[in-house]
Amino acid sequence: MPAEPLLALSGVTKAFGGLTVVQDVGFDLPRGGRLGLIGPNGAGKTTVFNLISGVYPIDAGEIRLDGQPISRLPPRARVRAGIARSFQNIRLMPHLSAVENVMLGQHARAAGLGALLTPIAWMPRGRWRREAEELLAAAGLDIDPGEVVANLPYGIRKKIEVVRALAARPKLLMLDEPAAGLNPAETAELARFLREIAAAGTTLLVVEHDMGFVNEVCDRVVVLNFGRKIFEGSMAGARADTTVREAYLGAEAADAA
Ligand SMILES: Nc1ncnc2c1ncn2[C@@H]1O[C@H](COP(=O)(O)OP(=O)(O)OP(=O)(O)O)[C@@H](O)[C@H]1O
């Protein structure tokens, strides 16, 4: 019998005010897999993330994590079940330090998403702080961990957000446009870090427009267009697929020319 996928979507559908933005989407993400969710602007990628993490309820279909249906669980319970994510726009606590932001991620491990809203003054210092500092260092972040996040450059803040999500030790790490706004060196470094995380066992689901980055990080892609899955397979397969080229990658290649 094939191993149970870590994440399984089937028939997932969502409409906003009569407009169906995700239609009958299904895919499996095996444990340890690195799946890229790609497609043109407005294709429904972030909405799929929001449906998996529980920001919105699904209208139809099912989402399973580790074989258990999670579609009807509140976001906090999904965090406890092992899902962590980053957002398209950075959502760090700007007035806290880098290490304190990562500690909030560690706290979410035990307490769920609501922990991100609680004061951290009470949190145990020693061991957790050391672990948070180690995570920042492992991510190749050469910063003073005590630096207030608002004072740090954008590329660094983006990476701290990934580290914070990782600090929850999720089974599934979902990253929404992690490379957006990064320079080529930062992008390459982030790809290296994500491959390392994946090699250590974390399953990745990544929404990203930088196809070079997706190619570096992901072992498979699902392509969405107008809320529907139009392709699933390798990046090379996606590049060669006529439907995908017409919907997305052709335009991307023309933009790059
Ligand atoms: N809360 C909402 N209410 C109404 N419409 C929404 C809502 N969230 C998303 N949409 C619509 O759903 C569609 C899909 O949006 P979504 O953000 O999921 O696309 P995307 O593929 O992530 O795009 P991008 O690459 O630009 O981030 C868009 O038409 C968007 O306007």
Automatic annotation (TrEMBL):
Domain ABC transporter: from-to ranges: 7-251
Keywords: ATP-binding, Nucleotide-binding, Transport
GO cellular component: plasma membrane
CDD domains (alphabetical): ABC_Mj1267_LivG_branched
GO molecular function, one term: ATP binding
Name listed for the protein in its UniProt record: ABC transporter ATP-binding protein
Organism (species): Falsiroseomonas bella
